[in-house]
Amino acid sequence: MKSIPDQLRIGVFFGGTSPEHEVSVITGLQAVAALNEDGGTGGDLGETALTITPVYVTKSGSWYVGESLDQVEHYADVSSLVDTAVEVAAASGPGRTMQLVPVRQGRWRRTEPVVIDVALAAFHGAAGENGAFQGLCEMLGVPWTGCGVAASSIGMDKALAKQLVSAAGVCVVPGRVLREAAWRGSEDSVLEQLPAELGWPLIVKPVRMGSSIGISRAGDEQALDAAIEEAFRFDSAVLVEYAVPNLREINASVLGMGARAAVSVLEEPVSASGLLSFEDKYMRGDSSSVGTKRGMASLDRKIPAPVSDSVADEVRAMALDVFAALNASGVARIDFLMNDETGDVYFNEINTIPGSFSFYLWQPAGVPFRELLERLVRLALDRFSTEHERVSRFEVNLLSDRAARGLKSGKA
After folding, report:
1. What is the spatial distance between Cα 75 and Cα 25, in angstroms, rounded to a whole number?
2. How far is CA 219 from CA 126, 159, 180, 224, 243, in A?
3. Which pLDDT score is estimated for 409?
4. Does the domain made of 175-242 have the CATH classification 3.40.30.10?
5. Which of 110, 118, 141, 150 has the maximum number of C-beta atoms within 10 A of its C-beta?
6. From CA 256, how far away is CA 379, in angstroms rounded?
7. What is the pTM of this model?
8. pLDDT by residue (tens digit) across 279-338?
9. What is the DSSP string of 113-180?
10. Residue 172 CB neighbours (<10 A)
11. CATH classification number, 7-146, choose in 3.30.70.1130, 3.20.20.70, 3.30.420.10, 3.40.50.20
C-alpha cells in the first residue's frame, strides 16, 4: 500500500445525463454526508484530513459546485438550486489534480478554482458509469474510485459482460442481443425466432441501462413486441433472455482490487411483482427518510439471503470469478439468478457503481459506510500510483531534424 498525504480534497460527483439521475443524486449525497461525519475511523485513510466537495452534474451535462448542493431537499427545484451554485468545467491541475474552473467570472469578484485530489464517482448509468467519466479522469491525471475505463465500459454493457463472464466459465442465462436496425422491418420474423430459439417466457431489457429501467417480462408475441419497443426507448440494443423459472435473485458485493478482493454477506431482494422493478428498488421505502435510509438501502431485502451454505459458497465464488474476469476494482454489486427448484445459479449483471455503494451489505461485517468510502478512496490512490509507476513514454524524438525530414517527404 502506498503512503497517503496529510490532506485529501475529495470531489463527490453525482447526477448526470442518465435516466438514473435522481438515484445518483441520492447515492452521492449519502456519500457526502458519510464523509462529512465528525470523527474519522482511523481506517484506510488514517488521520488524513478530508475536504469534501459535492459536484452536481445536471441532466443536460452542466457541472456545479456550491454550499447548497449537499441537502437533498434542495433538489426538488433544480432551477433554483443551480442559481445558487457555481457552474464549473474540469481542467488538469498541478501535481495530478483536477481543477474545477468557474465557467463565468463576476465583473468585480473572482471565484477561485476548486482543486480535487480524488474523484469519488457516484454516477449511475450513461457517461458517468460507462467509462466516459473514468476516461476523463485518466486524461486529466487524477485518481478516481471504482473500476478502470475498460471495466466500467464492459460492466455497463450487459451483453458484452456476459460474453466475457461466460468465457471465464461462469454460467449465464441463454439469450440473444437484438439491434434496433435488425428489428425494424423484420418484426414478425423476429417475434417468431426469439421464442423458438429461447422458449417462453422471456425477459427483455436494454443492454446499457440499470436500476431495472426498461425491463419487461413477456409470455406471448404481443407482450414480446411491446417489451422490445419499450426497451428500445432507452437503448439501440436490447437483450432478450429466457426467464429463469422458480426465480430467486441473490446478490453479493465485492470490494477490493485483484487478489485483495473480498465478498460481502449475500442479500435476497424482495419484489412486489415477481420481477424486481425500479419502484421496488427506490420507491418502496419511507418517503420521509433521509441519509442512508434512502436509495438502494430502502429496498425490501433479506440479509443474509436465506440459502444453503453450499449455494452461498457457490455464489461467493462466482462473484469473485466475475470480478476477476472483468478486471473490476473498488466496490461492485454482482447480481445472480437462481432456479429455486434445481439450485442452478446464473450471473445476471454487475453494477460497477452500485446504488448506495452497497454499504448495507458491508455493515454486517463491521464495515461502516464511512469506512467503506475511505477504502474506495485508498484503492483509487493505490491503483493510480501503481499504474503510473509503469513506463508510459518511449524516449525517441520523432521530431528531430533527421526524422522530421523523412516525415515531411512522406518516405517510410
Report:
1. 9
2. 30, 22, 21, 7, 10
3. 63
4. no
5. 118
6. 7
7. 0.89
8. 555 555 554 445 555 555 657 899 999 999 999 999 999 999 999 999 999 999 999 999
9. PEEESEEEE---SHHHHSSHHHHHHHHHT--BSS--HHHHHHHH-HHHHHHHHHHTT--B--EEEEEH
10. 16
11. 3.40.50.20
Q: Assign domain 156-170+245-385 one CATH number from 3.30.470.20, 3.40.50.2000, 3.40.50.300, 3.30.300.10.
A: 3.30.470.20
> CA–CA distance from 289 to each of 25, 36, 48, 72, 292 (Å)?
15, 19, 31, 11, 8
* One-letter identity of residue 41: T
Helix (H) or strand (E) holding 369: helix 369-387
Q: Where are the domains of the chain?
A: 7-146, 156-170+245-385, 175-242
Q: Which of 64, 61, 62 is nearest to 74 (CA)?
A: 64
Q: 283 with 379: CB under 8 angstroms?
A: no
pLDDT in tens, 140-162: 999 999 999 999 999 999 999 99
